[in-house]
Amino acid sequence: MLKKIILWVLFCLLSCHFGIGQTTTSSAVKPRDLKDGITTATLSEVGMDAAVVNELTSQIITGYYPNIHSLLIHKGNKLVYEKYFPGKDQIWGNDLGVIEHDLNDLHDIRSISKSVVSACIGIAIAQGKIKGVDEKVFDFFKEYARYDIGMMKELRLKHLLTMTSGLKWNEEVSYDDPENSEIQMTRSADPIDFILSRPMTSPPGQQWKYNGGTTQLLSVIIERVTGKKVDAFAKEYLFKPLGITTFEWVRFPGTDNPAAASGLRLRSRDLLKFGILYHYKGKWNGKQIIAQEWIAQSFQTRVNLPGSNDGYGYQFWIFSDTLQKQPIKIVAAVGNGDQRIYLDEKNDLLVVVTAGNYNIWDIKNNSSAILRRIYDSFSVSNIK
Fold this sequence. Notes:
alpha+beta, eight-stranded antiparallel β-sheet, three-stranded antiparallel β-sheet, 18% strand
């Protein structure tokens, strides 16, 4: 009898913490309305099968989808699912142990930071602080003119945004590896000198190569044309209009320079706000925060990724897929450890995932698998 009581208490505790009781009893249960500009609804109200999402929840809890920390589903301009899960976590490589995540927690978004920097570039262009993406990079770094030779003379902002700089760069090895170029940049006495002194392996605009250094250059350009470091600029012109009041931007060790490519920490709901802003053409609650044209340009495939049908825009990924025999286009902001914002315009779907799978690249049941399972909750006729 005592054993049964203990098991029942454990079940109740899990139900309260994970929302098991809510999601399994009725699809009428909806996420909390925090009066933060995000409208909430139930899964059934937007035509999703709650039973499929309930099963997904259980699989996250049991670890079938490993070390997921939060999952938010936004469909039809409504937040219809929001859950937080315990798991091992870090702050920019520093181990935190197991964290009981909740909606108030800041979380590493790693390279989703790049998409935020891109947004800041778009805002600075709209303000007239930057003429456009065709401006030459060395116009902003005249003290490094000794590197402005040969193919480097053609390096422009659009090449930084699309990671087609042509600079020699290696982020293909682990971020625990000292040969990783971003780690070398982080540890260098002058990160800008480190980036601009890299040899060129191809003319700008011809080849895509993942490069966090180009994002760091973009952040410094923002500082030079506005007088504000990228975190202060984002706070005033991006976060404040979205009602984002709490965030952190990790600095390079021993400096006051934000790690633009990977250092931003946000709450999951605020990550969703950023996704909503882009999903709905730069508008938030009726106010244009980012130019609609910049959103369209950012989501346009500027270069095809090597060995795939996928592409890259202005610090956003563009994925092609087929679901229920229907081709779909998914734009994504992507961060190490399975941090994701997925945007599907045709199906009016946004999915936010945070997780703790840092530097683990071969997870089968990752955020992409979660996304595909979410689509299973749509009826066949609802996939567009």
